Amino acid sequence: MAATAQSPTFEKSYTLFCLDDGQRTQYIVDQVAHSACPILIVGEAGTGKRNIAERIHDASSQAGRRFVVIDCATASASELQGALTSGGTIYLRSLAQLKPALQSVLLSPASGRRTPRLIASSRYPLADAVRVGGIGEDFFYSIAGITLQTVPLRHRRSEIVAIAEQMLAQAAIELAKPRPVLNEELKQLLLHYSWPGNLTELDSAMKACVLIGDQEFALGAIRASMNKHRTPKSGASLKEVSKVASMRAERELISQVLYATGGNRKQAAKELKISYKALLYKLKQIGREPVNGAANGDMS
């Protein structure tokens, strides 16, 4: 259901839709696609804001025209004016960073132009930018009449495994590799991880799983990320904290290098400037035993 949100400093209100699951997201995309109204998509990094904008464009009457991405942090007046003449859809990324002078360009009458559809995104609620004067109130209401709120992946636990399966299937097609079947241990890890990078981080993990063909690698990489985001227990000694931090850094670096070398352990050892035997020992320390057939270091 739509909710009406209102800042105490504003006289008007805007309609907010929460995209809290895949089915609801698709329904709302279908509904708003056929309207010419500007749309604001708000949510954390990696929650799929651009993907939603592209889906709205593809389902709209503008589908045959251009989808133009404007980075508001670096946009110029000429770039905006050029985009406004092309019709199609303009996707304004990081709208809170758009300079006030450029906001007026978007508000100017589009005389003699093909009017493009405006879809904007922001990591943060724009009402805060309005209060401090970064975003004009007129501009805010012209762009945020329909606001879509994406939901962090950590609040979509019931969908995580299904989303991961879809990403695995897509990655297998893109990389022309066999599609792995998620084992129960990896499924449980997916469910219990907080996913600070949201969909983008999950997609990277699934692509790595397909690329290397080793679920143990995916498990190790996710565990490394989990440990990186944990806070040391209070009362721990400096020596203990240093040791934990060192192990985390080693685990993360090894996982990154293995990913970069496609799982080739011998090449990874060269990149890390350690012996192959030392790498195998460290892999055992961090819970990544060599899999059968990978003793020579080549997992591709």
Architecture overview:
It is built from 13 helices and seven strands. Helix content is 50%, strand content 11%. α8 packs parallel to α10 and α9 runs antiparallel to α10. With 300 residues, it is an alpha/beta fold. It has two domains: 3-151, Rossmann fold (3-Layer(aba) Sandwich), CATH 3.40.50.300; 155-285, no CATH class. α3 links the parallel β4 and β5 (89-93). It is elongated, with a radius of gyration of 23 Å. The protein has a seven-stranded mixed sheet, with helices on both faces. Mean pLDDT is 79; it is low at 1-13, 231-235 and 289-300.
Short description:
With 300 residues, the protein is of the alpha/beta class.
* Number of helices, counting only DSSP H or I runs of 4 residues or more: 13
Could you tell me the mean pLDDT?
79
What is the H/E order?
EEHEHEHEHEHHEHHHHHHH
Assign the CATH architecture of the largest domain.
3-Layer(aba) Sandwich
Strand order of the largest sheet: 1-2-7-3-6-5-4
- Determine Rg (CA atoms, Å): 23 Å
Structural class: alpha/beta
Which terms summarize this structure?
7 strands; 7-stranded mixed β-sheet; Rossmann fold; single chain; 11% strand; 300 residues; 13 helices; elongated
SSE topology sketch:
Elements: E1 3-5, E2 14-19, H1 22-33, E3 39-42, H2 49-58, E4 67-71, H3 77-84, E5 89-93, H4 100-107, E6 117-122, H5 126-131, H6 137-143, E7 146-150, H7 157-175, H8 184-192, H9 198-212, H10 215-228, H11 238-260, H12 265-272, H13 276-285
Helix pairs in contact: 1-2, 3-4, 7-8, 7-9, 8-10, 9-10, 10-11, 11-12, 12-13
